[in-house]
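hi got a favour to ask and not much time before my train. below you get a single protein, a line of residues and a line of whole numbers that encode the local backbone shape. could you go over both lines and see whether the tokens make sense for that sequence. a few lines back from you is plenty, here it is:
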Amino acid sequence: MKIDRNQIIKELHNYFQVSELVCGHTFSRWGERAWQFLDTDYLAALLIIRRDILQLPMTCNSSSATERGLRCNMCELVKEKKKNYLSSHILGKAGDFTVKGLTAKQARERIIQNSHLLPCNIRLEDGVTWLHIDVLPQFGVTERVYLFSE
């Protein structure tokens, strides 16, 4: 079944603005066209997680927390790296979220319990106080939800 990217983005507008999912540098330059830099599987997974699994408000970038979605070469979190940095964030495949009414651990547990609803395999960062979601493929990993620690 082919994923309809435009329909996914249209539905995501009920929950997120693209400015919440990309860094300020990217949004300043590209505006609404910044959706083009976000991976389709990531957007599909994000929609299912927000709409069908968690069913609660989720915040990525905000005035008090920036660089939690797509990161570009101008972002401080990227510029400060001293070695090769290839993260799911710079590839448009990840976001770090706060979920209203749930701890990150509770959100991860709910996603795992409902993993059968996910449209693709995802990774969740374990042991952190935020909900990191990404769709970066892991060599040899076939689990629908893969927990990892940095």
About this structure: Residues 40-54 form the longest helix (15 residues). The mean pLDDT is 95. The chain has six helices and five strands. The CA atoms of residues 124 and 147 lie 5 Å apart.
